[in-house]
TrEMBL record:
GO terms for molecular function: flavin adenine dinucleotide binding; FMN binding; NADPH-hemoprotein reductase activity. This is NADPH--hemoprotein reductase. It comes from Tauraco erythrolophus. Pfam families: FAD_binding_1, Flavodoxin_1, NAD_binding_1. HAMAP family: NCPR. InterPro entries: CysJ-like_FAD-binding, FAD-bd_FR_type, Flavdoxin-like, Flavodoxin/NO_synth, Flavoprot_Pyr_Nucl_cyt_Rdtase, Flavoprotein-like_sf, FNR_nucleotide-bd, NADPH_Cyt_P450_Rdtase_alpha. CDD domains: CYPOR.
Length: 680
């Protein structure tokens, strides 16, 4: 402070003439600064005006283009279409049905297009009446427990929220479901009901396809009544017999840069060589198999545990989620198809859509080779649908074989019965049909156009990310069976996974995968007890649940009571994760562990028998402890039997009538306390 005071006093004793000079200097500086500021402001003002005008020079086609692309109305007007068939599809079947209906339209002097609701603005449905003789058809699959498919989620949300006036809309709905599930065809029923509520006019009754029965026959039966209703409504007639119309044209590439050829990628070219997150159905992650071991001891079945390394992928998952894997077809089946059709499978080709306005330019990634298409992109192991048989019939040179194919593709009762016995029940795939019909030799490009896409397979994740943040575990059973024709059919994915041997340097151990989120979740409250019922590979998600609760216990948390009632197997030798479950039981993470071996004694014992044996403890946990119930496994028999057993326990110990017990369990489901992760 003394130094600063001395300096201040020194400034104050300056001579008078020095002060006058400073006053004059500041005045000149002020003038200079004002002039400078004025000049800069003037320059900025005019420069700013020019900059503002720049964005206005280009008109706005780049902004308008996406709007046009998302309007199916504008597209229909431009291409002369009057029928649009939307599909909500998870496995490709609903999309296939939509394409067949769109293709049918030409027989009645109409023009149709199949459309993915994810790609369009569905609020435009209110404008469809602008097009003469217009109709919207919805082929809607139900996924999981009454949920919409991924590509129909936005459409479902819009239907729930909108109050649009759809009084000018004419529509029809065909639902794809499975009666073994609790919410059979929930999505199809909802769309049909909601469109009517919004004022739309239903021109034909709701169709309900059942995949547990014969989905193909259900569709054909609905379709053969649907078109006459359309004809009557619009006053049109069929123009002739159904004819074969190619949707794609073949282009063979004789001189092509192999770096531009797809070799199995699902979306972006070379995405397997240059992996970039985020990873999803169109951009799967190539995970290394680090462990592949057999879970059961001996026995006829091969039950396996695989571990996929997801390090550096940024993939996150929770216990209860599903992992989807993209398998490959058996190379021997692919080679046999090539040999029968006399084709060089390494020919590089493209199948280009003849409809230049279509969003779907190719049936699968192109250009590619026939070998790649048959290996990675096309389903060659499932029995082909009737429309495929109809299209192929023209290539059978033997009159008897041609007639047989056309009959199976017809809507006649005799034809349906023949298709059911000769194709479906005999499990004849396309190779078996070609082998059993020597005169049937279609062009391979048309066959590739007709075959459906090979779909990803979903597995319940058998690990917890708390314990294994960089790995996803899979529990699966290898599918293998003999058909009525004596052929040995093998499951595509499980046989492919079985051969994925851990190998640090080879591609043989790589699995294209992504994670699909699930609603199958542990209770938010750690003190909430859980009851888990999972026969066979249904134990998979519960391994993740138990790992998570064990981890929480190690962290000093206090997990609630867990009752594992359903670690069931056909035989003791098929007891999965025996050591792990015994350890968790010993550590107190599992308070009860009940195991049933259905075939190790004269009288079969299933999980429902274990439930009845432990009915008092089950009822106490549910009624007094607010326990959450989880069921995973077979939907056709096990899940239904387990649910019926719960009805019995609730009725007996809760002193309720059967209808009251059913209502009690249904309310548990509504509250999220009774969850299912089942498959048929």
């Amino acid at each position: 402070l003394t130094v600063m005071g001395d300096a201040g006093m020194g400034l104050n004793v300056s001579p008078p003439d020095n002060t006058a000079q400073q006053d004059s200097l500041f005045s000149m500086t002020d003038v200079f600064l004002i002039s400078l500021i004025t000049g800069v402001f003037t320059y900025w003002f005019f420069f700013r005006k020019k900059k503002e005008e720049v964005p206005e020079l280009p008109k706005m086609p780049s902004v308008a283009a996406p709007v046009r692309d998302s309007s199916f109305i504008e597209k229909m007007k431009k291409t002369g279409r009057n029928i649009v068939v939307f599909y909500g599809s998870q496995t490709g079947t609903a999309e296939e049905f939509a394409n067949r209906l769109a293709k049918d339209a030409h027989r009645y002097g109409l023009r149709g297009m199949a459309a993915d609701p994810e790609e369009y603005d569905l609020s435009d449905l209110s404008r469809l009446s602008e097009i003469d003789k217009s109709l919207a058809v919805f082929c809607m699959a139900t996924y999981g427990e009454g949920d919409p498919t991924d590509n129909a989620q936005d459409f479902y949300d819009w239907l729930q929220e909108t109050d649009a006036d759809l009084s000018g809309l004419r529509f029809a709905v065909f639902g794809l479901g499975n009666k073994t599930y609790e919410h059979f065809n929930a999505m199809g029923k909802y769309v049909d009901k909601r469109l009517e509520e919004l004022g739309a006019q239903r021109i034909f009754e709701l169709g309900l396809g059942d995949d547990d029965g014969n989905l193909e026959e259900d569709f054909i039966t609905w379709r053969e009544q649907f078109w006459p209703a359309v004809c009557e409504h619009f006053g049109v007639e069929a123009t002739g017999e159904e004819s074969s119309i190619r949707q794609y044209e073949l282009v063979v590439h004789t001189d092509v840069n192999m770096n531009k050829v797809y070799t199995g990628e699902m979306g972006r070219l070379k995405s397997y060589e240059n992996q970039k997150p985020p990873f999803d159905a169109k951009n799967p992650f190539l995970a290394q198999v680090t462990e592949n071991r057999k879970l059961n001891e001996g026995g006829e079945r091969h039950l396996m545990h695989l571990e996929l390394d997801i390090s550096n992928s940024k993939i996150r998952y929770e216990s209860g989620d599903h992992v989807a894997v993209y398998p490959a077809n058996d190379s021997s089946l692919v080679n046999q198809i090539g040999e029968i059709l006399g084709t060089d499978l390494d020919t590089v080709m493209s199948l280009n859509n003849l409809d230049e306005e279509s969003n779907k330019k190719h049936p699968f990634p192109c250009p590619t080779s026939y070998r790649t298409a048959l290996t990675y992109y096309l389903d060659i192991t499932n029995p082909p649908r009737t429309n495929v048989l109809y299209e192929l019939a023209q290539y059978a040179t033997d009159a008897g074989e041609q007639e047989r194919l056309r009959k199976m593709a017809s809507s006649a009762a005799e034809g349906k019965a023949l298709y059911l016995s000769w194709v479906v029940e005999a499990r004849r795939n396309i190779l078996a049909i070609l082998q059993d019909m020597p005169s049937l030799r279609p062009p391979i490009d048309h066959l590739c156009e007709l075959l459906p896409r090979l779909q990803a397979r979903y597995y319940s994740i058998a690990s917890s990310s708390k314990v294994h943040p960089n790995a996803i575990h899979i529990c699966a059973v290898m599918v293998e069976y003999e058909t009525k024709t004596g052929r040995l059919n093998k499951g595509v994915a499980t046989n492919w996974l079985k051969n994925k041997v851990p190998n640090k340097n080879g591609s043989n151990s790589l699995v294209p995968m992504y994670v699909r989120k699930s609603q199958f979740r542990l209770p938010f409250k750690l003190s909430t007890p859980v009851i888990m019922i999972g026969p066979g590979t249904g134990i998979a998600p519960f391994i993740g649940f138990i790992q998570e609760r064990a981890w929480l216990k190690q962290q000093g948390e206090c997990p609630g009571t867990s009752l594992g009632t359903g670690a069931a197997a056909e035989r003791c030798s098929d007891y999965l994760y025996r050591e792990e479950l015994a350890r968790f039981h010993q550590e107190g993470v599992l308070t009860q562990l009940n195991v049933a071996f259905s075939r190790d004694q004269a009288e079969k014992v299933y999980v429902q028998h274990l439930m009845k044996k432990n009915k008092e403890s089950i009822w106490k946990m549910v009624n007094e402890g607010n326990a959450h119930i989880y069921v995973c496994g077979d939907a056709r028999n096990m899940a239904r039997d387990v649910q019926n057993t719960f009805y019995e326990i609730v009725a007996e110990l809760g002193d309720m009538s059967q209808p009251q017990a059913v209502d009690y369990v249904k309310k548990l489901m509504t509250k999220g306390r009774y969850s299912l992760d089942v498959w048929s």
